[in-house]
Amino acid sequence: MPNIYLQRLVNEQLPYEIRRHAPVWQMQDAANLALDCLLVKSLLLHDQRTNAYYLILCGPEEKLKFGKLANLLATSRSQLKFASSEELQRIMQTVPGKVSPLILATASPVKVLISNHLFDQPKLGMHAGTNTETVILSYQSLIAHLNNQKITFYQQSPV
C-alpha cells in the first residue's frame, strides 16, 4: 500500500531518505539504530483552557519545560496536558509511537512548535505513518513541507 505521507513529499519535490527498522514505539527503542540523523521527538499537547493542540518537535534528549511552554503559549501550566490516546486518534488519526509532523492533515488546526535545537541539524529523522520506517530530511525540507501543507508552526524553543 502506498504511503500517502511520503507521496506528499514526492509531490512537493522535497528530498528525503527512508530507513527501515524494527518497530520504534518510544525514543529509547531507537537508541541502537544507526540512522545517521537526529531523531525528532514529537509530543502532542492539549491546552485545556483554549482547547488548542500543539505538536512539540524537539531532540531526543530534550525535556519539556511546562512552565516555559505555558508562558510562551500565554496559558497556565496546569492547563497543558499530554494528549490522550483517544485525542491522538481523533486529532491526528494515529496512536502513541506514531506521532509525527509528516502525518498532519493539510491545514490542520494543530500548531507545531519547533525546538531551537533542531535548526542547525543537517538531517532530521521522523516517522511517516509507520514506526518501522524513519524518514530522513533536512530542516529546510520540514519547514517547506509544513508551509506547503498550510500548517501553522513556530520556530521557538519550548524546552
UniProtKB/TrEMBL annotation:
<keyword id="KW-0648">Protein biosynthesis</keyword>
<feature type="domain" description="YbaK/aminoacyl-tRNA synthetase-associated">
    <location>
        <begin position="39"/>
        <end position="142"/>
    </location>
</feature>
<dbReference type="InterPro" id="IPR040285">
    <property type="entry name" value="ProX/PRXD1"/>
</dbReference>
<dbReference type="Pfam" id="PF04073">
    <property type="entry name" value="tRNA_edit"/>
</dbReference>
<dbReference type="InterPro" id="IPR036754">
    <property type="entry name" value="YbaK/aa-tRNA-synt-asso_dom_sf"/>
</dbReference>
<protein>
    <recommendedName>
        <fullName>YbaK/aminoacyl-tRNA synthetase-associated domain-containing protein</fullName>
    </recommendedName>
</protein>
<dbReference type="GO" id="GO:0002161">
    <property type="term" value="F:aminoacyl-tRNA deacylase activity"/>
</dbReference>
<dbReference type="InterPro" id="IPR007214">
    <property type="entry name" value="YbaK/aa-tRNA-synth-assoc-dom"/>
</dbReference>
<dbReference type="GO" id="GO:0006412">
    <property type="term" value="P:translation"/>
</dbReference>
<comment type="similarity">
    <text>Belongs to the PRORSD1 family.</text>
</comment>
